Recover the amino acids of this structure.
C-alpha cells in the first residue's frame, strides 16, 4: 500500500460502539451506522459517503489497499485491524466478508430534503421526473432497502420515512439498498402530519399505493387517474398497509393490476413497480 497510515488494533471502546450500532437507539446515540460488505463500502467511498472507520481482517486489508491506491479513502478515515473471528462477532451477517465500515449518520429531518422539481411552464403533459418515496410503516428492513435501491435506480433523490417505519440505517436495510440510503436524502421518523404537510406546501401530490385502488397503468390526467406535477408515492406496511392519515391526504389511491387468484405483491415488489411506472410514465395514454 502507498498510504502511510497503519492499521491499528481495534480497542475495546471501539468494539463496544460497533456492537451498539446494531440497534436504532445505539445508532442515534452515537450518530453512527454500520455498513457491511466490500461492494457497498466501495460504492459509499466512491460517492463520498461520510465513512469514519474501516475495520478489516487480513483479506479485507487487501481490499482497503486497493481503495487507498485508487484514492477512495480520505485521510480522515481511521483504519483498524481485527481477526476474522472478531469481525464475525461484530458483523450483522452470518458470513462477514472481511471488512466493516462505520460512518456518520446524515441529517434525517424534513429540512434536509431537496426541493421537488417543478414542471417547466406548469405543463401537465410533461414528464415530472422521479417521484418522492413516502414510506408509511414498512417493517421489514429488506423491503425498505429494496424500495430505496429502486428509488435510486429510477433517479429519485428523496424519501420520507414516517414513524413506525424500520430505520433506513438498519444494517439489513442498508444491505438491501446496496448503500443507496447513503446518497439519497432520507427523512426518518417523521410524523405523518408533518410528511403530508411538507408535500402539500410544495405542491406534491401523494399517490397512495393500496390494494383495490384505481389501475396505476390507466394513464395521467386528463386521460387517466394520475394527477399532474410532482408526485410522492406512498407505500404502506406489509400487514396494516397505509395509515388513515396518509390515505386521506392522498390525491389518488392506485393499485397494481394482477390476474385473478394471485396473492398480493410484497411492499417491495409493488412499490418498485410503481416507482418505475411513475418515474418513466409507463402508463397507457401517458403520451397521448
Amino acid at each position: 500500500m502507498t498510504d502511510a497510515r497503519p492499521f491499528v488494533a481495534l480497542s475495546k471502546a471501539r468494539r463496544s460502539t460497533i456492537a451498539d450500532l446494531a440497534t436504532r437507539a445505539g445508532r442515534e446515540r452515537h450518530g453512527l451506522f454500520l455498513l457491511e460488505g466490500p461492494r457497498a463500502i466501495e460504492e459509499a467511498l466512491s460517492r463520498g459517503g461520510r465513512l469514519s472507520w474501516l475495520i478489516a481482517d487480513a483479506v479485507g486489508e487487501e481490499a482497503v489497499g486497493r481503495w487507498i491506491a485508487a484514492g477512495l479513502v480520505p485521510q480522515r478515515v481511521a483504519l483498524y485491524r481485527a481477526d476474522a473471528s472478531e469481525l464475525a462477532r461484530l458483523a450483522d451477517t452470518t458470513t462477514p466478508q472481511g471488512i466493516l465500515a462505520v460512518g456518520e449518520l446524515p441529517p434525517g429531518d424534513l429540512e434536509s430534503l431537496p426541493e421537488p422539481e417543478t414542471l417547466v411552464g406548469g405543463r401537465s403533459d410533461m414528464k415530472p421526473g422521479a417521484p418522492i418515496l413516502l414510506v408509511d410503516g414498512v417493517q421489514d428492513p429488506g423491503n425498505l432497502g429494496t424500495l430505496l435501491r429502486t428509488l435510486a435506480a429510477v433517479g429519485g433523490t428523496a424519501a420520507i420515512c414516517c414513524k413506525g417505519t424500520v430505520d433506513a440505517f438498519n444494517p439489513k436495510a442498508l444491505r438491501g439498498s446496496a448503500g443507496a440510503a447513503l446518497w439519497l436524502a432520507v427523512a426518518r421518523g417523521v410524523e405523518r402530519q408533518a410528511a403530508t404537510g411538507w408535500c402539500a406546501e410544495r405542491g406534491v401530490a401523494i399517490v397512495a399505493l393500496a390494494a383495490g385502488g384505481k389501475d396505476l397503468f390507466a394513464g395521467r390526467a386528463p386521460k387517466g387517474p394520475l394527477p399532474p406535477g410532482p408526485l410522492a408515492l406512498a407505500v404502506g406496511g406489509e400487514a396494516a398497509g397505509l395509515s388513515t392519515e396518509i390515505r386521506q391526504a392522498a390525491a389518488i389511491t392506485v393499485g397494481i393490476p394482477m390476474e385473478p387468484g394471485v396473492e398480493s405483491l410484497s411492499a417491495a415488489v409493488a412499490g418498485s413497480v410503481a416507482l418505475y411506472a411513475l418515474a418513466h410514465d409507463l402508463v397507457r395514454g401517458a403520451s397521448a
